[in-house]
Write a structure and sequence with these properties.
alpha+beta, 2 domains, three-stranded antiparallel sheet, 2 helices
Length: about 80
Amino acid sequence: MMKKAPQLSFTVLTIFIILVLGTMANAQERKKICNQRHIPLAKNGLCVESECQAKCVERHGTNGKGTCYGTKEKNDVTCFCGTPC
C-alpha cells in the first residue's frame, strides 16, 4: 500500500505539469501579432504610442494592435501594426 501513494502523487504531479505547460504555451501564442506592418508616422520620425495605436485601429478595426519600436536617441522609432493571431 505504501508504494502506491508515491506513484499516485507522481502521476498527479505529472498531469498537473503537462496541463500548466499547455496553458502557458496557449497564452504565449495568443500574444503573437500577425499581419504586422510598418506604419509611416509624422515627418519628425518619432512614434507616439497613442497615435500608433489609433492608426492601427483605423486600418484593422478594433482588433488592431499598434506598438512603437526602436530607440528615441537615434530618432528611428517606428510604429508596427498588426492583429492578434
